[in-house]
Amino acid sequence: MKQYIYYIVLMLSLCSLQTAAQNGSIKGVIKSKGKPIENVQISIEGRPNAFFSDQKGFYQLTDVPPGKLKLYFTAYDFENENRSVQLKPGDTLTVNIELAPVNTKMLDEVVVSGTMKEVSKLKSPIPVEVYTPTLFKKNPSPSIFESLGMINGVQPQLNCNVCNTGDIHINGMEGPYTMILIDGMPIVSSLATVYGLSGIPNSMVKRIEVVKGPASTLYGSEAVGGLVNIITKDPGSSPRFNTDLSATGYGEYNADVAAKFKAGRANALVGVNYFNYSGLHDSNSDYFTDVTLQNRASVFNKWSLGLASGRSANLAVRYVYENRWGGQLNWTPDFRGSDSIYGESVKTNRFELLGNIDLPNQFVVDYSYNYHLQDSYYGINKFYATQQVAFAQLRWSKNIGQHELLAGLPLRYTIYDDNTSGTKAINGVNAPSKTFLPGIFVQDEWKTSEKLSILAGIRYDHHNEHGNIFTPRLSFKYAPNTTNTIRLSAGNGYRVVNLFTEDHAALTGAREVVIKNDLLPERSWNVNLNYSTIISHSAGFIGLDGSVFYTYFTNKITGDFLTDPSKIIYDNLNGYAISKGLTLNTDFSFTNGLKIMLGATYMDVYQKDDINGQMITTPQLFAPKISGTYAVSYTIQPWKLLIDLTGKVNGPMHLPTVPNDFRPAKSPYYNLMNIQLTKRFNKDIEIYGGCKNLLNFVPQNPLFKPEDPFGPEFDTTYNYAPIQGIKGFLGIRYTVK
Predict the structure, then answer these.
(1) pLDDT by residue (tens digit) across 470-489?
(2) What's the pTM?
(3) Distance, CA of 297 to CA of 275 (rounded, Å)
(4) Which domains does the chain have, with CATH numbers?
């Protein structure tokens, strides 16, 4: 009996060896732009096992049955690649793969906002969120202001339901505490934040970087709650020609056209944006325009010149003109400034110049200048203001052993003037506000090992009114492996305030400005703990990025308009403000073409005032405790059809009600959902269309006392969602690479 068992086992072993001998193997190297890619997942259709590439991008599949096979290559932050192969019995097949980086939110994109120098996002000790136009194309809009609403924890907030002024809130902090940069320079600030964001077309954007939390150690004043850095396209790598034309069912028309050309050693990019909305809509029957009518044109021109020793110089100029108005439906330009028919009319002229030059010995000069003119009427109140901001900075960087040093000498000079009493001296003579702000900063990133790095920095500024200002920061990054990263950051931010802003449009011009005490700069202290990881599985991968944040804010400057009707009394807040919470971003990517991006934020933002010895807590307006974003995409490959479902969910938020207001003091939960279909005909042409605000959510009664717009109780600030209901849109893109 034992002999029979022995022969059976022997025969089975021989059969097994014969089968194994007939099987083959597949090997190869996976790269992207010449660099090997680690942790690429390789799977064979119909087989449950998955394999991964090593640090050199090498992979090998053994004991593979012969025949026609389909291989799937999946890696986080890279386009999926499929390859059909024919494997003969006993053969070893070599299949080398080149993966293309995806154009969505990228973990390993090069970023500059966190450390003011180019560094991989994964290696940056400061948490930086990166977004490219591919994300914003999932829900196209005519301006960056609207597009930023797709970012978790960032809220574009309209501050007026008639003129549609707006700013950007980060983690619940008000717009003045968000710094807006273009190519790392303070182009959009103070007066310009009201309308300047609307004039930035998507066609000029390469990517957008968001830092949540103070960044004044590198960027100075205004970077109190966070910053948004808009990186413009490089002329050398831009398409030769591209255009994006779109229209909505409300009669909004947008055109983006860009082309590049070469002149000697220089590459140049020219972009033109035009937006027009001239339809009168009044869906809530309050006899006021739902959205301001706009006519806006923008021209952008950027040059890049190669210098000796691999150095370069860049120069960009942009001009924006906009004419907008909102108000009663029968308003015309003839009634501008009159007291018979109410309207708010704003004309904007804006010029920007920015650039940088690489110098020998790792020095760089950054420079920018912008001029902003606003000519406006709010009913009968005229507001005419100009602002000029000149900025220059000398940067130096040097690697010494394990240390990466960065130092800089920044200088900002601002001239602000308007027609209110805010910029008039006591004797009535015009006295524009002039701010001179030189500084110096030093930063050291110490890479103690492959896993741990420490970043420390400090900045000193001298303000011509506030005096000396110091802003330090410290950050730790620990990466135990290539898929997990922990960051702990703490820092200080500050803001020197231009008191005389558009709020003075409500004044008669006869008030005396009184500064009760020596005003101190507004300051914030922030702690942020961030964790990111990549989880691979048989059907794709999952990317997780979460943060816990806490910001303590002091010295808020407030204006008292009520104590004395002949005066405006300014003083620092006798208390503090808090912004705390947590945020989570997730990316799901599957080999079947399905991609899901989800983001959620919980925050608690409030202010405590010492009033007559008692601390009074006031919740921050327009700061929902719970909010979230989502983007679900699926590609039907045979049809070359992309389906995008995007949206933003906001929980209840406190709203600015007025005495005797019948409107609720808190908003409801609401979901702004959008759907889009994109059909690609070839590499050059694609047509897209869909619906915005698919659930048709519209706030009720955005205006208080619209029947008496010239009366003292008329209020326009009650705004928490778009006034437009469901609307269709259609567009076409044409690109020549």
Answers:
(1) 999 999 999 998 789 999 99
(2) 0.82
(3) 7
(4) 2-98 (2.60.40.10), 129-136+213-736 (2.40.170.20)
